Amino acid sequence: MASKHLINSPSTLVIESLEGLCLLNPELKLDRDARVLYRPLSNNPSQKVALICGGGSGHEPAHAAFVGKGILSAAVSGSVFASPSGKQVRRAVELIHPITSTSSDGAEEGAGTLIIVKNYTGDILNFGLAKEALASYPAYAKSVRFLTVADDVAVPRSRITLVGRRGLAGTVLLYKITGELALRGSSLDEVERVGKYVAENLATIGVATGHSHVPGTERGQDALGEDEIEVGMGIHNEPGVLRLRGSNGAPPPLSEIMPRLVSLLTASQEEDPERGWVSFSPSTDVVLMVNNLGGLSPLELSAVSLEATKTISKKGLRIKRVLCGTYMTSLNMPGFSLTLLKLPSAEQEASQGPSQDLILSLLDAPSEASGWGWVSNCPPIALSDQIVSSSLSTPGVSSTSQSRTSPTSNEDQKKVKEAIKRACDALVHAEPELTRMDTVAGDGDCGLTLKAGAEGVLSLLQSNEITGQNLPEAFVAIAGVAEDKMGGTSGGLYSIFFSALAQGLQNSSSTAKVDWSSALHYALTKLYTYTRARPPSRTLVDPLDAFVSSFHTEQSDALTALKKAQEAARATKGMQAKAGRAVYGGGEGGEGGEGEMDPGAWGVVVLLNALIGEGHYQAEGQ
């Protein structure tokens, strides 16, 4: 549970957030006392119907960030997770209600306000109170309508006999569809009719790895373990209906989670008597919304979209639109929700229901509300039509040019493969320690990066793509793995060094014995043409330079060179970084004492120790 917040004060957070939204859109106005953000209808005189929504804060961009041309006319904000008062809601109606006549008959026919409310007790009571209070005035009596959204499918029928289903992220689709319809000049009856169809055909389910934290409150204890997720958790931290547990201390993968979620969304009442709120028979046309509950990275959210699309398509549903983004959050809750909107069938259109083309056109229309994201305006197509596979293999090296440095005996080939495997195994084994070092001193990925490279080389060994028969060819292959599997700065440095080492071995003048000294010196010189790092720099260059330089000057004494590399790596403790990411963080390797060694530097020592010492990985200090 993330409990740190970058704010001035919990007491001023909501109003400061609303004022910040005003800066994004000059058309908007804010009634500060009532906490109503609104767009005056005078900015669009042809619009006959105003749309109002609202609720507790903490669900941003819902609701206030959807105020703007093409969506909402006004949003009323309560405190975090607390409904606004009836007085606030009445003020919102007064600010934007399109009264075109002040006769005793009230407002002109067709003009009016539609209040859209999520199905939560506080919201229903306070927004309903405002509507009933306004109903005593002729100008509002017939022209203020009330529409409730209850799209949650998690809670079973047996538990919601009185309060009904909760309103979740599907509410945002209702905002957009009815808001664009109102912008086009439709009547209150028409906007309400289409809105009712949408509200009755929404299904939403959420999943989270933990709870959210309300600013200004004490941090609670999250009941979920590191390997658990909760299905159906509410956007106010209400308990869910199902917990799923993964393995190896991690949550279950998306491929296991998604079928459970989609089943809850689409199951018929015959299949699940406790649910089946919307009938999604095979070949039903749907809109899919993938919503970030606040704490999920865009990297993860895109992967969720892919898995959701694949799983829903396997059910036989036809996805006409995919929306992916942050629409309705629970502050910083680490999770996502899926919403399906069932589009009208031909039979429903024939019975005077809204047409599918109309609903899609309303969704596709651009909006000036800051919270509304980009929509593709077309159905997703087969990934096979979008993904291009290209060969990223490293160009081969002629065997004739390598023959003089190629070990020929089976024993030599075996020794080469054993040495490479020994080094890779050592790096895999060292991953936890290297990761711990980098978590203190860097971004925490060094151990995983080296492990990925080592596992890639092990895979080549297993498939006999590295045979040990030809040394330059082997190092070219290793360089390719470093580039493809490791990536980043480390991957680039290792790839250049091993590629240059292959060149150095090819250039060796000795035909009887491999000239490692000259080849290593050549590789280091070539590496230095691409990096400014020079020892002492608190990078992997420090032990690498120490080893190569010693090996080159000490008549190829590998053990002495290894000792020099170990000393250079240990010297990075407390060293001021001169290159790499550590420069931006002060480069002290952690707070207090001598800090940590540079994990990349120690990774080089791990590799060299396994190669030269012909032993297993030894932890630092042994």
What do you see in this structure?
By secondary structure, the chain is α/β, with parallel strands linked by helices. Among the domains are: 205-213 and 228-383, Dihydroxyacetone kinase, domain 2 (Hypothetical Protein Tm841, Chain: A,domain 3), CATH 3.30.1180.20; 399-612, DhaL domain (Serine Threonine Protein Phosphatase 5, Tetratricopeptide repeat). 41% of the residues lie in helices and 12% in strands. The chain has 19 helices and twelve strands. It has helices at residues 13-24, 86-96, 121-134, 138-141, 170-183, 188-200, 254-266, 298-314, 346-350, 356-364, 399-402, 410-441, 446-462, 471-486, 488-506, 516-527, 541-553, 558-570, 599-612; strands at residues 29-31, 36-38, 49-57, 74-80, 112-118, 144-149, 202-208, 228-231, 242-245, 285-292, 318-325, 335-342. Strands 1-2-4-3-5-6 form a six-stranded mixed beta sheet, with helices on both faces. Strand 10 (285-292), helix 8 (298-314) and strand 11 (318-325) form a beta-alpha-beta unit. The protein is elongated, with a radius of gyration of 32 Å. The two termini are 38 Å apart. The model is unreliable at 396-404, 586-593 and 615-622 (pLDDT under 50).
